[in-house]
Amino acid sequence: MSIKRKDLLALKDLQKEEIELILDTAVSFKEVATRDIKKVPTLRGKTLINLFYEPSTRTRTSFELAAKRLSADVINISHSNSSAVKGESLLDTAKNLEAMNADMIVIRHPSSGAPDILAKHLKSSIINAGDGAHEHPTQGLLDLYTIREKLGRLEGVKVAIVGDITHSRVARSDIAGLTKMGAEVRLVGPPTMIPKEIEASGVTVYYDLKQGIEDVDVVLMLRLQLERQGKGLFPTIREYSELYGLNREKLKFAKSGVLVMHPGPVNRGVEIMPDIADGVSSVILEQVTNGIAVRMAVLFLLSGPA
Q1: Which residues pair with 104 in a beta bridge?
Q2: Percentage of the chain modeled with pLDDT above 70
Q3: Residue 222 has what DSSP assignment?
Q4: How many CA atoms lie within 13 A of 173 on its CB side?
Q5: How far apart are CA 123 and CA 129, in angstroms?
Q6: How buried is residue 247: exposed, middle or buried, by Cβ count under 10 Å (0-12/13-18/19+)?
Q7: CA-angle at 26, arms to 143 and 276, nearest 5°
Q8: Could you read off the pLDDT of 76-98 as tens digits, one per residue?
């Protein structure tokens, strides 16, 4: 069984059934990681290129491991070692890579819409690994997978996403995926970090952290994008942390057994306190583990009929 689309560009594009198929497929691939030999021949002979124009530890490594565990050949290219530094356009770079018979290109780019441009001009499958402030669909899928794995369902689950919603591609993918699967989504943050009219997407907005996480099943903390803190989005990092940083006292307002999630990288002591990030409620590292299985499922399903 496969997904009847060439590319994965955004969770808002996927049908509920497609999301369910990816999550169900990831369940079987997660078992591969428990074997002594963590590899299956599923994508033998296929070539995947990781084309990353932004730094990344988790996502790039996760895609590389996912492809290698499916026996694909993997090439990693970063902006600094590509012809982009000589002035070559993104599209020309991608066309040259495709001319080398690449089957799939995973792209991360600081500009929203860059993966869409490649998808329109290339025959290779294009997978969005994060574009600007648009979407990060595989992060959204692994978040959904982790919640479903831990709680046994997505429908009716109450999820609070806390932080800089405006600039977060993770938040956009999570909102699209969670609402599509029937979860109740709350957004929590200062007014300067929550887009206007976002409630039209089916979410509820809170500006008070304690109210926003009251009785929720999941608290998903977003990284405070420190590179943007000089743009007047909040007075100081200390004030942001006091109002929106997750600590033990505030977490008591959530439901007993709450899951604490974070897409990483974590600013310890800013958006989340270390004892919460490392505490019994945290599933942050399980998100990382599940990311490989989810990306294996995506690569497999986009590769065509089995």
Answers
A1: 48, 125
A2: 97
A3: P
A4: 27
A5: 18
A6: middle
A7: 30
A8: 999 887 888 888 999 999 999 99
Mean pLDDT in residue range 35-42: 95
Whole-number Å distance between alpha carbons of 75 and 78: 10
Residue 278: CA atoms inside 13 Å, Cβ hemisphere, count?
6
250 touches 186 (CB < 8 A)? no
The answer to whether 3 and 25 are in contact (CB under 8 A) is no
At residue 229, the pLDDT reads 58
What separation in angstroms does the CA of 201 have from each of 70, 83, 195, 198, 269? 36, 39, 11, 6, 31
Q: Rounded mean pLDDT of 224-230?
A: 69
Count CB neighbours of 44 within 10 A: 11
Indicate the pTM of the whole model.
0.95
Angle, helices 16-30/284-302, rounded to nearest 10 degrees: 110
**pLDDT at position 305:** 62
- Residue 49: which of 132, 110, 112, 129 has the closest Cα? 129
Report which of 130, 81, 88 is spatially closest to residue 106, judged by C-alpha positions: 130
For 204, other C-beta atoms within 10 Å of its C-beta total 13
Specify the pairing of strand 158-162 against strand 47-52: unpaired
Average pLDDT, stretch 20-34? 95
Which one, of 102, 123, 126, lies nearest residue 115 by Cα?
126
Cβ atoms < 10 Å from Cβ of 301 = 21
**DSSP one-letter code for 80:** G
Closest CA to 218 of 247, 254, 182: 254
Question: What rounded mean pLDDT belongs to the chain?
Answer: 94
Token digits of residue 1? 């069984």
4 — pLDDT class (breaks 50, 70, 90): confident
Classify residue 205 by its DSSP letter.
Answer: E
Q: What gap in Å lies between CA 5 and CA 84, rounded to an integer?
A: 29
Q: Which residues contact 146 (CB under 8 A, 6 or more apart)?
A: 259, 261, 283, 286, 287, 290
